[in-house]
């Protein structure tokens, strides 16, 4: 039963985690620290199955920590400082439960890394060190079991400094000032001035991970524990807190009564009981746990770790209030298992596993509709056995797991464009994506580089949302896509017929079309998980071990000789390493030790066999089509993925960008047809614009023709054969080209990127481009820039080589100037206007001028520049 509610008093709150390789004595150390601090009256032992923090039956039976546990101890004030309340988090040491340990790291202020004095730094110890560095957790090191034969403090300290750096300093007695002086400049200055650093300076160096205090002792005999407690009290400081409420969730669990508990650390403000959390859920109760028991508190202050009853939608890693969400976990499972429960409905099993996934998101529970099977992802055999036990005890389900398969992934080795078009009747969306290889381990990165005049920003955000909302399957085995960067390059929507679901279809199809294109070019790669391994065995068996690693398609460093034993380190595929631990035990007669740690994904060592064995056919995957849907004569029809680029409505420009340097982009018959269709589309748009103009302003008549004359001519035409009218005389003199400067700058990728750094540089670059274009085409260019917001500004016209540059006056936009200019120039001269402004295009068309979009003009300029280069080369 919980005790009576009480409100915590102000203290220095420090959250400290205990981390170690399995069997290093971590739980024994926690037991000793609690006992020496007065939090326990009697010492328990792991081997006696009565340790204070081993509260689960499976933990006591196996003698290992499976779930992160919390204990609280209080250290008296030293001098004028406050008393220190330390929350100890005892984390799992077995590699199968390393995800649980990584989640606890998200809330730690300090950590105590426990190392066996006889075994030294082991494989999982190095992984924990990398995680501590990733989460920037200040670390104390406790070398345990120094009472056993073979434990040598000098050897262990040299090993620590060799593996983790010179910041590892012995603090068992008084630390060596010379060793501390090498860790940071402030420490060196104080050592040179006073002979030893001040405690505040030393505490600051520890907090910045410049010094890692090392302690040597034996937790079972309580040796060295007092010195460690003194350091935790004197050399730690409470991290800065948010002025408003903030908290970080690191764990979800259930108590014996089935109450869902959200474990969080408060990082700012105060969390009172019954408070409404960000997201609208209420904190019904705040529990301060100490082992398996808890007491209720009225409020949680910064630094406290509490279990909150009430919220139902929280998740590990979630930030509340001012606290941001945690980074994505570094460790992830590499084995996939199928769960079977003969005595229960598959959906009952699925619901139970989803409940456990809420507590451990790394299970990645998935339901396969095609096979009616439930799949989970696990780290290893021990976690599988624990999961079976939990399903039996909590849900009454006797679940068996099939042999775990390897979790493969797919990536790209070259950039490719993906196009998706979705246009059934009364629907429209087109998406162009650039898919590029990304660094190994980066996952899927999303970006947008699409001009707003091509696709509105609200549609762009929707496309990025659809890209992020699912895991995209590959085309080799259907494995998840990873280590790619997907950039939205272009797209199009319809003013009336586009809906949100249309862009979902177009986006998914664009990804698949790009992957199918890459696969046809041999640019899709299959990835598999790899292990970093450490093998310690008798020196006489090293030759056998090296041959085995080569047989398993692995690589290794030069063996290290340690007396009669040797150590071999390297990496190898997970698929070939399974079951090798039994072989090591057999040929070393139990003297060898085989440790492996996940090392991420890399190229598959036997991709062809894996692809063939999977039997995956991307064309038969109806849930993930690569084909597009176009519309013709009022009906939608399917276009195969390899014909989509020739029928696309938008030219993204990626074809030229992805062409090899110095080579023009390939143009096949489909590309020529698309260019011709684009030209016909421009003529159709001109007709549509003309119709809009005539509906708005009336029918366009020839000069000198009035309405009565038109009616008389129409009646006469019904009864007489019209005589051939002489053609209108063609305009004489040079052509005029009017360019809306800012419209072009922000429509061209090159100029837009240049304008982000310097708008003046972008203007100058456009002026140079137009000078070359006009000189080659023999036209009169007029470049117009808006200056209408400049108070009191008068119109300015400057001559730049063969180019006229106009800066409009106050209250006169570039559109207004171009409209008046075309009205006068188009009477006697051939006049073209470069702008993507739709309204402006309608008006200049009515004046008799030709309109050119900014994108189309960019292609003209590129063609002219190419002709100029060819002419100069000749």
From TrEMBL:
The lineage of its organism: Bacteria, Bacillati, Bacillota, Clostridia, Eubacteriales. This is TetM/TetW/TetO/TetS family tetracycline resistance ribosomal protection protein. GO terms for biological process: response to antibiotic; ribosome disassembly; translation. Residues 11-241 form the Tr-type G domain. One of its GO terms (molecular function) is GTP binding. Keywords: Antibiotic resistance, GTP-binding, Nucleotide-binding, Protein biosynthesis. Residues 653-674 are annotated as: Disordered. PROSITE patterns: G_TR_2. It comes from the Bacteria. Coiled coil: none annotated. Pfam families: EFG_C, EFG_III, EFG_IV, GTP_EFTU, NYN_YacP.
